[in-house]
């Protein structure tokens, strides 16, 4: 047999089903999560202090012993002012220059409108000739 624990007035008000959702616990949980995220995000986003290198545009002087290779807009290769017939011809000329002591620096001047492939052929010829010091000549930024 069941024992009644409180007043046993069975009225129609107690028997009604509540058809709304109580959002108070949901709001409480969301506020707690928001506070946790606000506290932990600054901890996660900080990183190790590192001194990054500074950019310096150093003007390089052209020395008389530097070898200047130019590539024009049409992709033609020039050693100083002499037109090279092929990259193999350039490689043969650079091989004889690479034997000098100290080895000269090759400075490549590529036209901004030239194909990258033409400059790549020059770089490959320089590498095959055994020259270790290669630089690119560009216009300084305004």
How would you describe this structure to a colleague?
Helices cover 34% and strands 13% of the residues. It has helices at 24-45, 87-98, 116-129; strands at residues 67-71, 77-79, 82-83, 106-110, 134-136.
Anisotropy-based shape? elongated
Please give the share of residues in helix: 25-40%
CATH class of one domain: Alpha Beta
- How much is the radius of gyration in Å? 39 Å
Q: Which structural class do the helices and strands define?
A: alpha/beta
Reported for the largest beta sheet, the result is: 5 strands, mixed
Weakly predicted, low-confidence segments: none
The name CATH uses for the topology of one domain is Nucleotidyltransferase, domain 5
How far apart, in Å, are the first and last alpha carbons?
Answer: 96 Å
Mean pLDDT comes to: 79
Side by side, the strands of the main sheet go 3-2-1-4-5
**Tally the helices: what do you get?**
3
β-sheet strand percentage: 5-15%
CATH architecture of one domain: 2-Layer Sandwich
Would you list the SSEs in sequence order as H and E?
HEEEHEHE
How many E-type strands? 5
Key structural traits:
142 residues; alpha/beta; Nucleotidyltransferase, domain 5; 34% helix
What secondary-structure arrangement, pairings included, does this model have?
Elements: H1 24-45, E1 67-71, E2 77-79, E3 82-83, H2 87-98, E4 106-110, H3 116-129, E5 134-136
Parallel strand pairs: 1-4, 4-5
Antiparallel strand pairs: 1-2, 2-3
Helix pairs in contact: 2-3
Provide a concise account of the structure shown:
By secondary structure, the protein is of the alpha/beta class. It has three helices and five strands.
């Amino acid at each position: 047999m069941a024992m009644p624990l409180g007043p046993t007035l069975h009225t129609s008000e107690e028997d009604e089903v509540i058809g709304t959702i109580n959002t108070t616990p949901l709001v409480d949980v969301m506020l707690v999560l928001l506070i946790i995220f606000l506290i932990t995000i600054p901890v996660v986003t900080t990183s190790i202090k590192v001194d990054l290198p500074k950019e310096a545009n150093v003007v390089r002087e052209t020395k008389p012993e530097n070898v200047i290779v130019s590539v024009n807009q049409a992709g033609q290769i020039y050693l100083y002012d002499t037109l090279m017939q092929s990259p193999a011809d350039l490689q043969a000329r650079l091989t004889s220059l690479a034997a000098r002591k100290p080895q000269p620096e090759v400075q490549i001047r590529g036209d901004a409108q030239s194909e990258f492939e033409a400059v790549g052929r020059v770089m490959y010829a320089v590498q095959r000739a055994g020259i270790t010091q290669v630089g690119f000549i560009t216009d300084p930024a305004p």
